[in-house]
Amino acid sequence: MTRTTPPRPLDITGVFPELAGLARTAFRLHPVPGEPTVHDSSVGGPLLWPADEPWPEYEMAPIPHWEANALRDIHLRRALLARSSAPPHGPGEVLTEDEQETLRRINTGLDHESLPSGPQPMIPLAQLYARDVPGLAFPEGTDLLQVLWATTYVPSRDSSPVQLRWRRCAEVRDVLAAPPEPAYVAVVDFVPVPCVLHPEAVREFPPYHSLDEDLAARLLAWDEQRSGGTYWTDLSVAPGWKAGGWPTHFTFREPPEPDDDELRCPECGGPSDALLTVDSNEWDGSDSWIPLECAKGAERPPDQPYGNLWDPTQVSIGRGYSLQIYYCVGTPSHSPALIMQ
Ligand SMILES: [Zn+2]
Q1: How far is the CA of 260 from the centre of ligand 1 (A)?
Q2: Could you say which architecture CATH assigns to the domain 12-69+109-340?
């Protein structure tokens, strides 16, 4: 199964030729719920992790008890809800009394007093093999990127809740069979449904904040005169989970100034660039990015019988925003910069 982004409504370089040199290739990841293995690129799937390497941990901030759930319970609740809403049944029709009791127990959450203190293991966010995203900026000698995160609210200036590992697959001989799991999850919306990926290369152009002021102003004026697709929504940056390309647009907040620390590596202060976008929706605001395979009238993909096609991972960032993960260009193993935008 592939995913195919429709052609852009128009070629923006025909209107603004100065954009031609600014095109970048991004990889829309097109996550689809499935059963990825350690040998697959994935979101929320198992990692090809060396058995003798410590698993990253994170000291969680105190949380209200109603948000704490065991990881297995989150997956169990999703499975029960998916089954109970699958055609031809109506919501709740097929759950037994025991299953409904299980749902009630999970919805109540863990007893706050019972939660252990101290650092908790992080969980896999994404794993990308270079063969699936050719051209992504892998450091020389590496062919696997792993991203882990802590299931807690991410302060925008705190990089530690996300960790990157760049590896050479051939160096991983014994794979860790049973990775540690956190005793509890603080934010259910940060737990991805395990997804296989269907990466697709698309051409992107810079968001307004990455353009010089004059060009950005002319593009904005051009957008305002149009009734159809705009530079913002249709012609610049792809929505949804993606690797590489340009950073996403800033939505609910102003972008930082170009020399602001926020856009620099939190470890060495060097320049950073877009690596991974974690998005709450695969498309939003404009239909032009809906893959042909998911368009209205298209048959529902057989590999995705339940859930929403625009929200396959069930990860939600804030109120439907995205999290941009920026890597250090000089030393990619440094902690990434994180901005909700
Ligand atoms: Zn750095």
Answers
A1: 15
A2: Roll (2.30)
Place of tokens 């409504």: 9
What is the 217 CA–ligand 1 centroid distance (Å)?
Answer: 32
Cα(244) to ligand 1 centroid in Å equals: 17
Radius of gyration of the chain (CA): 21
- List, in order, residues 6 or more apart from 241 with CB less than 8 Å away: 28, 29, 30, 31, 43, 126, 276, 277, 278, 279, 282, 313
Q: Among candidates 340, 308, 26, which has minimal Cα distance to 193? A: 308
Determine the Cα–Cα distance for residues 124 and 43; give it in Å rounded to an integer.
8
Q: What angle do CA 27, 32, 35 make, to 5 degrees?
A: 115
Residue type, 3: R
Taking alpha carbons only, the member of 22, 326, 71, 339 closest to residue 203 is 22
**Residues 323 and 251: beta-carbon distance below 8 Å:** no
How close is the Cα of 336 to the center of ligand 1, in Å?
8
Provide the CA 146 distance to its chain's centre, in angstroms. 12
**3-state class of 102 per DSSP?**
helix
- pLDDT for the residue 159: 47
List pLDDT tens digits, range 226-239: 877 789 999 999 99
- Which amino acid makes up residue 9? P
Over residues 149-162, the pLDDT tens digits come to 998 765 544 547 89
> Token match 């049944």: residue?
89
Ligand 1 center from residue 105 Cα (angstroms): 44
Name the β-bridge partners of 297: none
Amino acid, single-letter form, for residue 273: D
**29 vs 126: CA distance, rounded Å:** 10
Report the separation in Å between the CA atom of 330 and the middle of ligand 1, taken as the mean of its atom positions.
6
State what percent of residues in the chain have pLDDT above 90. 63
Task: Tell me the per-residue pLDDT of 258-287, one tens digit each, with 9 for 90 and over.
Answer: 778 888 998 999 999 999 999 999 998 788
47: number of Cβ within 10 Å: 23
